[in-house]
């Protein structure tokens, strides 16, 4: 029987939380080291001892259990929350355990250092849960037990999950379209539904982040504002999550991002879609959409639930970090955190979208480079760096030339910043240039004999040059 | 996300009866929560009982998964509870918002469970269109209670029967054909392949040029981000909204949108006030006034809107509201903040102050006096009539403050204003008026002061005598009349003394004659007369003008007994003072 968090004081809970987080971080370090070195390596040993000590401190008379439930870690029944600094550790360990269908690790009080070492070695060498449990039995590891994740018995497969994510994406489009086209404010916002939708989007961001990023490659030129707003919403939630915003805040951020361009309903379509450079007076009209949007949202104040932050974001998302940009407000105040977040993701999505007046969009990696070059005048520098780190050197949706001569599409970034150049890519053309529905390969994989990486990114390619519709590859993965 | 377990096995599973009882207890506990307040004994008992039994179950089994049908609960494929009464059915309550599974996990705390029931109660109390139990559970984010609600529910709500838009993909097109790399791209691959032969893997980690920037944040940079998040979390929403409204007003160029703004401004203003946030309210007002100045030349319609808003601050419930805020926050809000606010709000400040004084709830009115005095004096100069309107018999304390302020900046109407309070039944108010009149350099004021010579209050009569500038013979005749023996007999020594002092100061022949007559009386026959003479001598001594000296000399020469002696002493004193 496990000690529950119920019987502990706030201080006690804090200690448990700290211990749990540290265990995750140590596990992460050990997994990384184990890939590079043998388990006898000094660094590995040091980290192992530290992990062991932490576990022992927390399993005095009863086992200490690290468990996963619905994509979240619990340690001694306390939910572990990550901050953006340790997000890579959380993500990596979660991936490693989930991949092997591990739902919980039970550390018994009698656990020895040797057993712990054996467990780590076996964890990496076992492909699945059954193999791991067999190996643990063979290695006579008795004071550490793994439990199978109960969810995986009926968890949706990758295809099903992607299809579900795509469905919610397109539903969001429909919902936003209704809001933009409705004449009745109550109908326009349907805040209960919007809130629920944001919760669903959040869940998909947590559970299927890479695919969500893939979907943000969808660029519908006819419905640009709607499509763009959904992409901005998703990217904002993902970035907010990395920053450690809590659920309530993320929902508000999502709603704010969802409606950030609401003011464009009052901008004439012929100006929005003009296939040439705007005249000054046309530019002036476009530059009104922030405060038009803010005014519209503020005037719906009687509809409960519109987050105040949504008004901020509508107003401020084109104001730069140095307070230039538009609109030029009466009092020059620092923009809201949410506005800063939306500004970053809005800019990114906008410049990676081909528009009637922009024949060539930036590739995703070009966009990130450009944004970093803009410096702190345009964006909040630290938030931008977190965003770039989140997107990766080669963001999901980047088309890359590989050292093997193949062409790949980045489908998942590597959560470890040190391995930023080693994402997972889907092979979309072989070395002869033939388009194929190739496998997803991990560029972190090495040849077991030579210890060399099997594939490396040589350079990013411009999908527009090769008439490649990136979004199609992601959507194809949802087809039965 | 868990759905229905398809591959469970019985045998060692709990007996459904135990679960049935548990679910029934869950429903009963929920009913108790619905009917009674949470601290009610019935609720506490049910909740505790349920918690104990559930905890015991969870210790054995790890979790309890409840699957939700339209009007039933199911566990391990068996119906364990059913209720077809849609209006009261707990299963239906969950079902209508798309909840399909509810799970309780080992580690569940009592507090979590109580919050669970309170959440249900809270959502059930909302109108149907605002209520969503799934949303509420999601926001609560219970540690040991999980749930599942499929996306399909919300998708169906959004689509309302319409097809969800799709992006059409043609896999055949996608995976057939060729990608002909450009020469440049092909060359890059070839060059890399040549370089990589014999080169260690570490060289491969060269970052694209711009992304050589250090992306990982240093500790001090994390702190910057944390500080940014922290500061935004502590932004007060009411102040944010007020600020945003001003910005929207500033930027709005569609004049037809303006009318709705006034109400929004009032809402924001009231919200700040009710929260006791005077500094923020003041800032809001000052910004509005600044905006008005900006608009007045270019966009007069906006300036008018602001004018209308500011004018309305005097009306409606604002005075009562401000009064309430003052009394509620008397310890919390600094005087400087109040002053600032009342200065910013303009003329309505007068009504606000009046309301506060009139509230009757002020423990110590004087706590506000300092502020009120500053504001009243300012308006005494700017618009004395506005101030005068507030004074009334019914509120003497307030009226006195107003009088004091007005007299420092006298207006041509001030005398008639003061005159209206001369016959006030409140002596303190009459006193205030007298003091005010005494400060005014005006014959009419002096005339009004004359009326005080017959005031029922001796205090006021004395004050009036002192205030009279007896320069005019008419005033002198009044005073001499007051000094007639018949009148003096009815007065106290103190009053007589003051009358004589006033007379003695005048140096007028009539006064000489008066005192001569007085000293000529057979004072030795009437003690009162003797006293009067003594008082007269004292008054003359104090006056020590030429006439006074002469009178004293006469008395010394012609007088007898004590009067002679006193007059002698008085003269010696006067002479001695003259020498020094």
Largest sheet of chain A: 5 strands, antiparallel
Tell me how many strands of chain B there are: 5
Question: Within the largest sheet of chain A, what's the order of strands?
Answer: 3-2-1-4-5
**What would the average pLDDT of chain A be, to the nearest integer?**
89
For the largest interface, the chains and their residue counts are: A-B, 112 and 94 residues
The CATH homologous superfamily name of the largest domain in chain A equals: Hypothetical protein af1432
Q: Give the number of helices of chain B.
A: 30
What coarse outline of chain A follows from CA principal-axis ratios? globular
Roughly how much helix do the residues of chain A carry, as a percent range?
40-55%
Order of helices and strands of chain A: HHEEEHEHHEHHHHHHHHHHHHHEEEEEH
Q: What is the CATH class name of the largest domain in chain A? A: Mainly Alpha
Structural class of chain A: alpha+beta
Task: Tally the beta strands of chain A.
Answer: 10
Major sheet attributes of chain B: 5 strands, antiparallel
Q: What proportion of the residues of chain A form beta strands (DSSP E)?
A: 5-15%
Unreliably modeled segments of chain A: 1-6
Q: What general form of chain B does the structure show?
A: elongated
Question: What is the number of independent domains of chain A?
Answer: 3
CATH topology of the largest domain in chain A: Hypothetical protein af1432
The largest beta-sheet of chain B arranges its strands as 3-2-1-4-5
Task: Please report which band the strand proportion of chain B falls in: under 5%, 5-15%, 15-25%, 25-35%, 35-45% or over 45%.
Answer: under 5%
